[in-house]
Every structure is written in C-alpha cells, then in structure tokens.
Design goal:
heterodimer; A: mainly alpha; Outer Surface Protein A, domain 3; two-stranded antiparallel ribbon; 12 helices; 5 strands; elongated; B: TIM Barrel; eight-stranded parallel β-barrel; two-stranded antiparallel sheet
Chain lengths: ~260, ~280
C-alpha cells in the first residue's frame, strides 16, 4: 500500500498507542492476502509444482488482483484461472501448454468434489426409448477434458510425494525447496473424465471415440448421432465398434454418469 | 438466560466445531458430544462429500449453524443466492438457531472473506438491523449476532462497540452470540475494560457463548483460534456465566487443529464454571 493508502487510513482509522492508522489497516490487508493466497495455493498444488514457488506466487497475486473473490465462498476463487492464463501466457511461459492442462484438471477436481448430482438413469428407463430418439444428460460434476500431457499420472505422483513428505519432516522441507515438476508432452491427445464415485474424485482415461460420444451426448445429440459422429471415418468393423460402445456404456452406467437431459 | 427465544428455548451444553480433521474419528468412534457447530458456508454446496458427511453427523448429533459470510453490516441487502442456500441448509439440519457476525465483508460484488469491523453509527445500526430482520424472516429460525474481534477503530464511530451491539439487537429483535475471546482480544487492541463490555450485554438476549484461543504479538493480539483458551478468557467466561446463567457454549478451534480428544477436552473445561450458574448476580 502506497502513501495514498496511508493517507486514507489516517482519515478513517484511529491510531492507538502502539500502531499507526496504516499499521492497523495493514493487519487486515495481510490477513486478506494470506487467506486468499492460501486458498488459491491449496486448490492449485499441481500448478504450483509445475511453475515452482516464485512463478506461482507471482501468478497468484496477478490473478487475484484481476479476479478477487466474487463469491461468498472461496470455492469459486479459481473459476477464471484457465481463461486468465490463456490471455496472459507470460505467467506460465515457457510451460504454457502443461500449465494450462494442469489448471484444467485442477479446476475439474473442484467441480467434481461438490457439484450437484442428478438421479442417475436406470437401464429400465433407457430401454423404453428407441436409440434414434435416446438422449442422455451427463452429470453436472463430470468434466471431459482433452489434454496434451498425462496430468492424471503427474497428480498421482505429486500426491504420493506429498503423503510421503508429510511423514518425514526433513523430506517435507526438501519438497518445498525442490525444482518444478516436469512432464513430457504426449504424442497423441489424452482424453480424461474427471468425476466422482462414492464422494471421492477420480480420473478416467477415455478412448478418443468414447470422449467424442460423451461430448456429443452432452451437446444434445441422440445416441445414434453421437456414435455415428464419433466413429465417422473409422476403419473399424461395425461389430467391433458396437462391442466397444457397449463396454463403455456399461462402465458409465455403473459410474452413474447419465441422467435425464 | 439459558433457554430463551433466541436459542429456541433449548438447553444445549458444551459443543465443539465440526472440523474436517475430526470427521473420521467422529464417524467411527461416535464420541459423546452434546452438539456440534457447523460453518454454514462449508455445507451450502450442491452435492458431494460435505453433504454426505453432514447427513451422517445429523443422524447421531445435534447441530447448530454458524455463518461467516452473511455480512449483516454490509450497506447492501443480504445476498439472495447466499440466503436461498442458507435457508435450504436450515431445513436440512433442523438447527434451532443460527448465527453470524456483526461485521461487513463485501462491497460491489467483491468479497474479503474476513469479518471487518464497522463504524458504530446510528445509520449503521439501522441498516444492520434491517439486514438481520430480513435474514430472520427468510430462514424462519432465530438469529444470534456475534461480536467480532477487531484491530481498527473508526473516527466516525458515535458510540462504543457494546452500545452498538445493544442498539442493533434491540432494533433487529435478535439474539446475541457472545464471543468472550473476541471481547478480550478487542479490549487489548483498543484499550477498554472487557468487563464493562460484558456487563453491558443484555443477558436475556444471549443465545450462545463462544470461547477460543488467540495469539499475542508484540503490539496487538490476533484472533487465531489455534490455541487453548487462555486464563483471562476463562475468567471472563466465568463472569459471563455468573451474569447470564448456564448457556450453550462452543469452543472454536479452527487452525493447527489437534486431535478430537484434545479439542473436546479443552471445551469440557467450561464445566468448571457452570456449577456456579445457579447463583446469578443481581
């Protein structure tokens, strides 16, 4: 806070025998930044690991200055981070693609944790509707991501490292000072579902066709339309495709991903 | 008074805050706890684990809601989305009363996530009481407003904090969540006698009492809720109980949270002071 801040403080706030007006106001200023940076850091530990402490802190301050909390809950603090990073790649250079992938996954985790759940569709309900008219809604907590890096594997490694560090104080200090995490870019896109089962958040890798079927269903396509567009141009035999689709749907029904549109 | 209309005529004893590090212990060991206080905003979500845990807790325990973001002292009216979700949660928990703070914390759509003190003016009394009445009318249970700890005082104030509190609760016809630790912290930061504050509080409106730990720095005290309750605060609590009577008491421990047994053990120390409640000061 600059001299102007001190003059505003003097105008509004009484000093006491120990602190000036500005120093009293500074208590709240420090608490504010400590609280928001703490919450932001908790939500984006993967991004922190990728950027390293200095770059992450610089990004956090810039982001929170641009997008301070606009909700009564800190849960939504990171809601604009992906679009902020897309507009300001200088904060994540030279690892912009990885940083964006990680941020997408970490925001999807937050949504998966406490976004609403609708009553899942049952096989009986589905069987009543002909496939050419069958439309599915997807659970609000389910995110479908196309990534260029195996972020799910990276997050798993990070979690194991943190758990191990917590049980070893020396290692914990070392972990805090360790270098930024590196992850090799994948040669082909990685399709990832971020969802929850029994109130825990999970990642599920998807075949490309499976991902595109789910995207099309979410966009309002019928089952027939979604399957046809996902396999358009495929050299696979229809019987092979049908078997794969059947297997995927059985798994997705188990997860409870489908609900009324 | 112990049971009054501001705590829905209940006689709750000693409770602790429901905190994530204790979920496992509580759900597995099912310890005997008179009641839990929950932070409303943590459960004002649309799905997922928080509500699942809450529902399991509600099967076994009594729960009272305590909010941190209603901001009665905002010049603007209460946030409608917040109020809608709060009302939904009240129905779920069956809380006999709910509380939030005598403070402001957001302006022009930006939230500070802090409990900011207000200038104690007649104008502020009016809009604060208006906001409390609106919340009470909407949620349908009594509301108790909590005094905050503070680190600033304003030139614009026209009265003391305790005078402001009394005016607000009269105008709003609401209860008081008397935070004894907050009075202590503010008294040290602002140089007033905490017992003057305690004695000014209308006993008949006290629905609940908070006790907590704090941290002393060189030039101020910070309300950190990360320590056991200190002796001066226990003394003030004893004085409050003498004046007010046996009242629902909650220990707040929100940071560097130790084991469930340690937190609950600390809370139960309040029992030392409760037997004297049968003798109430004239």
């Amino acid at each position: 806070m600059q001299a102007a801040g001190a003059s505003v403080a003097q105008r509004l706030i009484k000093p006491n025998d120990r602190l000036t007006s500005f120093e009293r106001l500074q208590i709240y200023n420090q608490q504010y930044w400590w609280r928001l940076l703490g919450a932001f850091g908790e939500d984006f530990r993967g991004l922190h690991a990728v950027l390293g402490e200095r770059k992450f802190d610089r990004l956090a301050v810039a982001y929170l200055e641009a997008h301070g909390s606009q909700s009564w809950t800190l849960r939504n603090l990171g809601a604009h981070l992906v679009s902020f990073l897309e507009k300001h790649p200088e904060f994540i250079h030279p690892r912009a693609a990885l940083a964006l992938d990680v941020t997408r996954v970490e925001w999807a985790r937050i949504l998966a944790f406490d976004d609403p759940e609708k009553p899942p569709l049952t096989p009986k309900q589905i069987a009543k509707i002909p496939p050419d008219r069958l439309r599915f809604g997807l659970q609000p907590y389910l995110s479908l991501l196309e990534l260029h890096h195996p972020v799910d594997e990276m997050m798993g490694t990070l979690k194991r490292t943190e758990i191990s560090a917590m049980s070893n104080a020396v290692a914990a200090t070392h972990t805090r000072r360790s270098k930024a995490v590196t992850v090799r870019r994948s040669r082909t896109p990685i399709h990832l579902a971020v969802h929850r089962v029994n109130f825990s958040v999970y990642y599920k890798r998807l075949d490309s066709e499976a991902y595109h079927i789910l995207l099309a269903l979410r966009a309002g396509s019928t089952l027939d339309e979604a399957c046809a567009s996902a396999f358009a141009g495929s050299k696979e035999l229809p019987t092979q495709s049908a078997a794969r689709i059947q297997e995927w749907f059985a798994r997705w029904m188990e997860f409870g991903w489908f609900c009324r549109p | 008074m112990p049971a009054n209309r501001f705590n829905a005529h209940t006689e709750y004893g000693i409770g602790i805050g429901l905190r994530i590090p204790h979920y496992g212990h509580i759900l597995q060991k099912k310890p005997v706890v008179d009641w839990f206080e929950i932070i409303s905003e943590n459960y004002m979500v649309d799905g997922g684990r928080p509500l699942h845990v809450l529902d399991q807790i509600l099967e076994q325990y009594r729960v009272v809601q305590h909010g941190v973001s209603m901001y009665f002292g905002n010049a603007a009216r209460p946030n409608r989305d917040h109020l809608r979700k709060l009302k939904r949660l009240v129905k779920r928990t069956g809380t006999p009363w709910l509380s939030d703070h005598l403070c402001w914390g957001s302006v022009d759509g930006r939230f500070t996530h802090d409990l900011l003190p207000m200038p104690y003016t007649r104008e502020a009394v009016e809009w604060t009481a208006r906001n409390i009445r609106e919340v009470q009318d909407t949620v349908g249970v009594p509301v108790a407003v909590e005094n905050v700890s503070s680190y600033v005082e304003f030139h614009a104030s026209e009265m003391t904090e305790w005078e402001f509190l009394c005016e607000v609760v009269e105008r709003a016809d609401c209860g008081i969540l008397l935070d004894v630790n907050n009075i202590y912290v503010s008294s040290k930061n602002h140089g007033f006698d905490p017992y003057v504050y305690l004695d000014a509080v209308p006993a008949a409106r006290v629905a609940q009492i908070h006790i907590a730990g704090h941290t002393k720095y060189e030039r101020f005290i910070l309300d950190t809720h990360d320590h056991p309750v200190l002796d001066p605060v226990w003394k003030m609590y004893a004085h409050a109980i003498q004046r007010i009577g046996r009242t629902a008491t909650l220990l707040e421990w929100d940071d560097r949270i130790p084991s469930f047994d340690e937190v609950h053990g600390e809370a139960l120390k309040a029992n030392r002071f409760l037997p004297h409640a049968d003798t109430i000061a004239a």
